């Protein structure tokens, strides 16, 4: 197996994965402390606003101003000296902070150490990486910098490299994903198995031979070099002629370039959100319903003589306009696409974000439809992952929202990206039934007696198991379809309340990592719940043992799906005495062992 051809940015970033300590972008002190400077400047201007107005338009002097006191006492020199000392200390502190803030990338981890008086060191193991997010705030984009946010499984275990050169951040993302995928290990194994071929290839490419001896590059055109920030180094004569214009052109190109590189993903895998649909989804949100209720109460209150409500509520209503504006602008250029290293999400107009979720990191998927979206056929997709980026997703939503709003065709394409082995043509009908069907289909549904506690949704409530994936369908007003790959299931729980026991019903809850998706199934037949329990316990262990998606680069993507007993399919398994499903071998691990 050989890895894909590296991009120029990834080749330039390879020298930062040598296991040595490296420093961040030189503008990091300004970018990290820029907010503080802006806040201080705003505070000073707010306190000097009267003096500024008086200077330009004139006005009475009321006295008592600190600047007047300094001038009257002749302390101008001391004030300037104090200002210089404070600025020097701030600049010196930022410089020391930058010098003491370094990172290194080894074959198994990403480490960051920082701090002047109190030193901290964070370490992210590559085999626990859940996603990599490249964030470019507006101010950082002006300096050609970006943040690399590495999400790791665990509480507050993320590692953030802020800031790096924009090109270097993209290159390091690719290199870290190659390390985590196992591609380099596979390449080393192949090199060890074919020494002669590796030596010939290394000599042709100017790399390293199998024996570890560096080989000179072949004669030919000069190879472009890159600096510490991943920017191309221009030869001295050209650098003198390029000057500022090249820098300006580079920044303009970075601002105008699409957030998703067309070469990183095939065009047919890219899903985008039209601005009109995005705007409509915001208007038909729950926040709009809340505003309408508040306006109605305000009108009623004002008509009954409670005019004071206008002064209390009206400022909040005016401020709510910023809610829609921020959500709309931050969701512009939203795109989802499939890449060789996982699903890529990009969004943002001024400040941009581009996150990659490697294969095997998604523990549960939920396709849901609010009531107001139903006439337009719009849906939303959310996921559960073990790690979450520190940055918010599009429009301030959690970064677990894979598709903020889309039609049925968009849902098909996004599911094919996040669950490529399940969301195939032969499963399209069962997925569509889980999204829109009202029951009486291939799903195992609730019995009629469940109508006593689920009068509207009992016919739609049900489950289906296909291979190593469990689908849970529920909800009539707010439709929901949860899809759980059993290879990453944590545990399964059956529980009964007093009313459930009287009606011979039970509820099921699947435990995955913490997230917005809560896979559960209420009001199913008690005997059928025991069958489901044993099916899930057996299939989850088998699927977990055969799953290799966490090392997606070391194994071929088209591996056979784990063998599952035909009786595990929905609606075909019957319970035998003792609660063991027919066709299940004796000694099958139970849900307690699974947990």
From TrEMBL:
InterPro entries: YdbS-like_PH (IPR005182). Residues 98-165, 333-413, 458-529 form the YdbS-like PH domain. Residues 544-595 are annotated as: Disordered. Residues 566-595 have a biased composition (Low complexity). Keywords: Membrane, Transmembrane, Transmembrane helix. The chain crosses the membrane at residues 77-96, 278-301, 307-325. This is YdbS-like PH domain-containing protein.
């Amino acid at each position: 197996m050989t890895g894909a051809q590296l991009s120029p940015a990834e080749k330039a970033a390879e020298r930062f994965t040598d296991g040595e300590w490296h420093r961040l972008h030189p503008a990091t002190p300004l970018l990290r402390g820029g907010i503080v400077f802006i806040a201080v400047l705003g505070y000073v201007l707010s306190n000097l606003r009267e003096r500024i107005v008086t200077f330009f338009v004139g006005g009475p002097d009321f006295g008592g101003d600190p600047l007047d006191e300094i001038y009257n006492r002749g302390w101008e020199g001391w004030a300037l000296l104090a200002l210089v000392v404070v600025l020097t200390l701030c600049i010196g502190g930022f410089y020391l902070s930058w010098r003491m803030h370094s990172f290194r990338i080894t074959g198994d981890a990403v480490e960051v150490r920082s701090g002047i008086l109190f030193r901290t060191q964070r370490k992210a193991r590559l085999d626990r990486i859940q996603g990599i997010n490249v964030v470019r705030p507006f101010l950082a984009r002006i300096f050609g910098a970006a943040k690399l946010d590495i999400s790791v499984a665990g509480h507050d275990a993320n590692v953030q490299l802020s800031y790096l050169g924009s090109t270097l951040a993209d290159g390091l993302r690719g290199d870290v994903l190659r390390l985590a995928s196992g591609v380099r290990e596979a390449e080393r194994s192949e090199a060890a198995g074919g020494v002669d071929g590796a030596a010939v290839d290394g000599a042709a490419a100017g790399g390293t031979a199998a024996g570890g001896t560096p080989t000179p590059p072949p004669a030919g055109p000069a190879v472009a070099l890159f600096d510490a920030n991943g920017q191309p180094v221009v030869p001295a004569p050209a650098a003198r002629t390029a000057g500022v214009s090249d820098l300006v052109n580079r920044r303009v190109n970075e601002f105008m370039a699409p957030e998703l590189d067309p070469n990183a993903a095939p065009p047919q895998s890219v899903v985008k959100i039209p601005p009109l649909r995005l705007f409509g989804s915001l208007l038909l949100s729950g926040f709009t319903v809340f505003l309408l209720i508040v306006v109605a109460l305000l009108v009623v209150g004002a008509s009954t003589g409670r005019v004071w409500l206008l002064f209390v509520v009206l400022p909040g209503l005016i401020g709510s306009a910023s809610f829609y504006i921020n959500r709309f602008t931050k969701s512009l250029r939203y795109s989802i696409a499939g890449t060789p290293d996982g699903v890529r999400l990009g969004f943002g107009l001024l400040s941009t974000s581009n996150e990659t979720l490697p294969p095997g990191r998604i523990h549960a998927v939920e396709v849901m439809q609010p009531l107001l979206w139903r006439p337009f056929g719009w849906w939303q997709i959310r996921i559960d992952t073990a790690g979450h980026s520190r940055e918010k997703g599009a429009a301030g939503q959690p970064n677990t929202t894979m598709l903020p709003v889309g039609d049925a065709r968009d849902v098909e394409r996004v599911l094919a990206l996040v669950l490529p082995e399940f969301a195939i043509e032969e499963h399209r009908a069962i997925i569509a039934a889980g999204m829109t069907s009202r029951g009486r289909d291939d799903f195992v549904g609730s019995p009629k007696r469940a109508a006593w506690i689920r009068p509207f949704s009992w016919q739609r409530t049900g489950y289906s198991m296909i291979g190593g994936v469990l689908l849970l369908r529920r909800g009539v007003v707010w439709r929901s379809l949860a899809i759980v790959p059993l290879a990453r299931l944590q545990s399964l729980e059956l529980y009964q309340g007093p009313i459930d026991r009287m009606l011979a019903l039970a509820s099921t809850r699947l435990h995955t990592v913490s997230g917005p998706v809560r896979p559960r199934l209420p009001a199913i037949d008690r005997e059928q719940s025991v069958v489901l329990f044993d099916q899930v316990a057996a299939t989850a262990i088998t699927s977990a043992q055969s799953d290799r998606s966490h090392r997606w680069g070391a194994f071929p993507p088209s591996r056979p799906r784990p063998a599952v007993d035909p009786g595990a399919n929905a609606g075909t398994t019957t319970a035998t005495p003792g609660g063991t499903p027919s066709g299940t071998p004796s000694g099958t691990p139970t849900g307690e062992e699974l947990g």
